[in-house]
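Entry 14. Structure prediction run on the chain below.
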Amino acid sequence: MRFIAKTLYGLENVLTEELKELGAEDIKPANRAVLFSGDLELLYRVNYCSRCALSILVSVDDFRIRSKDDLYNRTLKIDWSSVLNPDSTFSVVTVVNSKLFVHTGYPGLIVKDAIADHFRKNTGRRPSVDTNDPDVMINLHISNDSVNLSIDSTVVPLFKRGYRKAQGAAPLNEVLTAGILKLSGWDGTSPLYDPMCGSGTILIEAGLMACHIPPGRSRPFFGFSRWKNYDVELFSKVKTVCDGRITGLNISISGGDISEQAVSQAIENINSAGLSGKITIELQDFKDAHGHGAGEYLVFNPPYGQRIKAEEIENLYRTIGSSLKHNFPGCKAWIITAGKEPIKNIGLKPKVKYALYNGSIECILAGYELYQGTRKLRAE
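Output returned:
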């Protein structure tokens, strides 16, 4: 089987490494996606265990077309009976960039008609279209004359882990958060601190990683569970094996925030994620915080954009830079923020920077190594 793992811009490489660890083959990074091969068991395992994928598509067919008739005829020939039957419902989601079609929604109608006609021809009956809650979601991607038809095995995006009960003003996407932790080099064996924890996403994703808890463990639904060929016993086996690797937390993961509401929300989400008693949170202003020892990772998402007035951003980020320099010697700090100006105002030179997107906002993930004194003195 050929699969397409969709992800966020900038996370293609960390998703590639993750898929290798999960047993994928023929792995090929693409733009906001990673292509790979495997069997049904791998499909279930990636959906259950991937931290950096948004959804997993099963490729049905790739072909080229010259007209709308080509699209209809090729779709009609596909054997859809492995996942659909006449009693099933389906929908078609389209992404079209082609001069062959004036209206981007029209190719989706062609595919719907071809699938319906395929079943009518072979069974005398046809499945119904349901755009709200379909049994099977089919993806149609057309770029110029190139067509890919695939089936969404996830449907509800994988960043919806199922643990979030309380939400702050601008929470980080869970997939983006896991990607940030992997890009930082944090592997779950070093202490981690988020001094501006908000509703706790960074702390929770770190806790799940450190305890080897599958991110899909709290999810109530995967798209493949409605397929005709869904293997309940195989998925149960996958969950049992993956859950059997769960461990306790052997490091310190802690956070703080200046907002009482944020601290309360974070605690609620931490408990919902099954990490109660494993992560500590305190009400604290970052300027009063101090590191917990050399080798600790600071990973945080300071306010930016609509979350804070423009005139306050410069002072905030200068305070962040000063606190990092004086209060966290020997630590590694990773900050995600929008634009270059906030990074400049920190006043420290990043060791590395990555371009990422938080929703539609272009962001920079900057990594710092915090030395005691100057680098020159440290080298001597």
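The longest strand covers residues 55-64.
Filed with the rest of this week's runs.
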